[in-house]
Amino acid sequence: MDIWKTIVFLSVLWSVGAVVSIKKESDPGAGTLFYHQKWNVWTGVLAATCLELITVFVLWSPWSFRDEPLIVIFYMFAEVTLFVVTLLFYRVAINQPYAVLGLSTERLGIRLLFGLRVAVGCFLAGYGIFYFLLEFQTLQTSHEWLLRLSRQTGMVFVVLNFFEKIWGTGSLWMPVLFMVIFKPLIEEVIFRGLLYGPIRKKTDPVIAALATSFLFMLADGSYKGHHLISGMLLAYLYERTGSLLPGILFHGLINLGGVLYFFDRRKINTLDVFTRKEEVGAIALVLLVSFLCIELVYRVMVRRGYHWKRPASAP
Q1: Integer Cα distance of 76 and 55 in angstroms
Q2: What are the tens digits of pLDDT across the range 27-86?
Q3: Rounded CA gap, 215 and 238, in Å?
Q4: How many domains in the chain?
Q5: Which domain holds residue 119?
Q6: Which of 255, 209, 268, 254 is CA-nearest to residue 236?
């Protein structure tokens, strides 16, 4: 990560904190989750700052990935430690139940099903567009496009590739566990839980979603539009369900997609247009069938009264 990108992120983060802190609070509505949240925006700002500084320390420390591979283990351990400290601070200093943060298990099944419904629908739309482009572009254009895509490596791919080179394939369970479970949990609690709520209390849902999604994109350092879009979807799930858990599920599935792509690149030639189109079409078909099944189960459950009637955190 470029040091200037870190400076930009921290500058925007603290500017948002300053603006939100002096803005007059609007009424989020007594029936919403955010009505019960008593912490201010600086809790989220400080947690997001610590999360970013961990990354900065790892990337700009005297060690390097090549010379001191254990620094990656330290990075993962530091993020998990930050998450634990954040939860302890929330419980002791803020003194509110975790349900108010959006971690309630009340009516969890229908909430997760709703989140899975949105996630699979988004993946289906993405793969549908992918297949459409491969189908209707010229062969040369599609090949050039796939070549550009193959050169783009996200954090999931980089970490998995690093572990495999240093410790072998048998070590990959560790980064997979971190990227698919712990990383989404940490980021959702900080960006949606601790930041979205206080901003939401001072403005409307769209502005709050845009602000936290923009910060989420800047924190990643890639400045790619899909981070902004995924951030908006994660904020929508939090707003719609009154729980962080569907968003954590969605976020984990996104990272799981990166994990599967890492293994997929070793099995097939991802630059071969015909092979790639066949694979994408098969995945899109599986997603379509999965979405229809999930939609059917969700509608049946809603008709039978399995739905959330109030925020999971409401006393």
Answers
A1: 10
A2: 666 667 888 888 999 999 999 999 999 887 776 665 555 456 677 788 888 999 999 999
A3: 16
A4: 1
A5: 3-303
A6: 209
